[in-house]
Design goal:
This protein has 258 residues and is mostly helical. It is built from 14 helices and 3 strands.
Length: 258
């Protein structure tokens, strides 16, 4: 959450008057905690996608000095540390050492096979760790409101890579949003939901469509330069700085835009 004075110059450059005023009004009355996720080829098994979300939010809370709710994988790791190495590894033959198991559990997202094996191992001992995301986010909201935030906005970039592993991820995310009204999600993907329509029956697809506000951004030539142009704050001495900077590099198309 950037201080208003740090982004005011950027907002003033927005040509859409209604959007510019909406952002000003929104920022004057609301404060949301931004959390960033990157979709990768290591995205978790569909059954554990809520674990991935929890871990990412937990890390963001800790960086801001906000106490996160209990994250069940931390509890599992603590119990793994207490277990006898021989008995544990005999039941989880995927691993040759406890350290490697803990390493895989500590990843974000945690290794799905390691997580599943531990759930099963401790289930036999009568231990259950699952904390519903809905209840977990309620605790998050309580804690962040004490710190002056109104809610969480999760920005999930490169979501295309997640969808490529299975379009059902989209249905799962839609369900998570429906169950957690104070949780906002921005998905950035290189494909539209229409391209996945054939994977769903009409009712499920309609729910997915209704859950999201769709905005298509057409990437024009030199879009990276355009983004940089709009984020640069030009202060006194800008022309001298620009002249010195471009004396060392040759980017005529970018220099002319500035």
């Amino acid at each position: 959450h950037d201080p208003w004075e740090d982004i005011e110059d950027y907002v003033e450059k927005i040509t859409d008057t209604r959007l510019r005023q909406y952002l000003k009004n929104f920022r004057s009355s609301k404060r949301y905690l931004p959390v960033f996720m990157i979709g990768t080829s290591s995205a978790p098994n569909l059954d554990f996608i809520d674990i991935y979300i929890k871990k990412t939010i937990e890390d963001s809370l800790k960086k801001r000095g906000i106490e996160p709710p209990i994250y069940e994988v931390d509890l599992i790791i603590e119990d793994v540390k207490k277990e006898d190495d021989g008995k544990l590894l005999a039941e989880i033959p995927l691993y040759e050492s406890k350290d490697k198991l803990i390493e895989d559990l500590s990843k974000n997202p945690p290794d799905s096979d390691a997580l599943r094996a531990c759930y099963e191992y401790f289930r036999k001992k009568g231990k259950h760790y699952i904390v519903e995301l809905k209840e977990w986010l309620k605790e998050v909201n309580k804690n962040i409101k004490k710190a002056g935030y109104d809610g969480v906005i999760l920005i999930w970039d490169e979501f295309t890579q997640v969808l490529d592993q299975g379009p059902r991820y989209l249905e799962k995310v839609q369900t998570l949003l429906a169950e957690n009204p104070e949780f906002f999600l921005i998905i950035i993907t290189h494909r539209t939901s229409e391209q996945y329509r054939r994977y769903f029956d009409e009712e499920v697809f309609r729910k997915i469509q209704d859950r999201f506000i769709h905005h298509q951004l057409k990437l024009v030539e030199n879009i990276s330069f355009e983004i940089l142009k709009r984020t640069i704050v030009r202060k006194r001495g800008w022309e001298d700085y620009k002249e010195k900077a471009f004396a060392k590099v040759y980017l005529p198309s970018f220099e002319s835009m500035l």
